[in-house]
User: What shape does this take?
Amino acid sequence: MTIKTTAQEPNATSNRRGRHGPLHAIQIPTHFLSVLVLSACVLAVPADARAQVNPEIANCAELKDEATVTQADLCAAHVGCRFVLNVQKTCARAKSYLERLQAAIGEGTRTLLFGYRKEVTPDAIFTAELNSEERSNERALGARPDVQPRAQDIGNRVRDAGTGDTLSGNGKNGTTWVYYGQTRDGQEEGTGTTIFSSGEIQRGQYRQGERQGAFDVLHPTGDRFVGEYVNGKRVGAGAYGFKNGATLVGRWTDTGAVQGTFTRADGSRFEGLRVDGKPAQGREYRADGSLAEEGRYDKGVLSVGARIDTEGNRTDVNLPRDREAAARAEAEKNRLAAEAEQQRKREQAALAEQQFRTSLQTMNPGQLFARADELNAQGDRARAREVQRTLMSRFPDHPLAATTARQMTGESGGSTNAGGGSSPAGTANAASRPAGTRLSSQTCEAMKQSVIATKVAPNASITASQETVMFMTKTVLDMIAANCPTEPGVTPAQIAAERQTRQQQYAAAENACNAVQSGGRRCVAQNHFGPGR
Assistant: This one.
């Protein structure tokens, strides 16, 4: 009698991707049949099978009892089963997986002559993994009326295809995979199961090596997908169960968007379009079934639509409009703030100007003259000229007014330096009225008498005495400049000599006075001892 048996699977780490090796014919004597029937549950285990099991799992004490050892040997001899066993994180979980695997295998595969033969099948691996305690939500997904028929049909097809041919290779992120099922020309074609070293199990319909048709996928994260694939991508009707108890049932597009219902573990749900795993357009319902909100979403947040409270009251939502209104309000706020700042600066400038003008009315001639000098030095010639005009308008008869007039008309004979300040020698030069200014005879006589009547006290301070001398000499210079009457027979040369002498006296008195000043004060010509003092 001749029995055909499939050759040993390729090593799980092999990069070979193709049809499994040839079938071998083995001659078995008839008198050995009873022995084979009794030992059919024990498969030949490759010498390196145990070495390929995760050492932390292979050394578990929980796996050393006789029943578990036999099951472990069966699993270790099967690449796909070994992949799933290796991802069990604890010895207890590994033992639980092997016990579920034994239950899934059951009596085994029935043979024509030898009864039942114990063997690991792709369906047994899938069933053992699905029945873990951690996948109760995934089992519930498969029991849904809208999912169960497709899941059962896929399972029936896989069981009908059996182990079939074997392909293996390398996947993404350093994983390896093994395929069991129907093939053509070295590629997956028809029904089959792919098991990855990460623990993921995919089973369904393939075409030319790509997932094409109905699939049932167990993800290592604890999630499950039952639905359609087109060219290796989820496209069409499907249901996705999450480990946390949520489900997503609907239709997938080739862009990854899903039109359907996303139900959370607490019973609340979203109905509509989801993009990148977040609501995009639809309705949100509470766990009691009442509508909570509806409309268009932006990155999972309601953007345009309405919110409905538990009393049924609706509140319109329009985030783009609100953002635009907020932007306009912010722009208006900034505009008003800018205008307010400009107004504040204008008012501040007006106040400063008012204070400046007011200060001019409280200054004496010397302070005005010094202020004009300071502004000229700062380059503010407009204000300097305003101070000068104030000096001449308020104190037209003061000697410094005449000096200022000459500075403004450029007739000071070098009385000012580059910065607008006066030099000691130049001050006396400028201490007379502009040439051509005539005074009445009465004014000339009054100026003469003021000089005659002024007497400097012997105990006077240097400031008082020198400013009084400056006043007296300045008055004489103003009289000369105004062509006041002189004694008969006085020649122009004598008048010129008198002017020069008085200018020298003025400069000497000013220098002596300024030498004892502090705090930036400048001496000015004023009468400290004349009539009325």
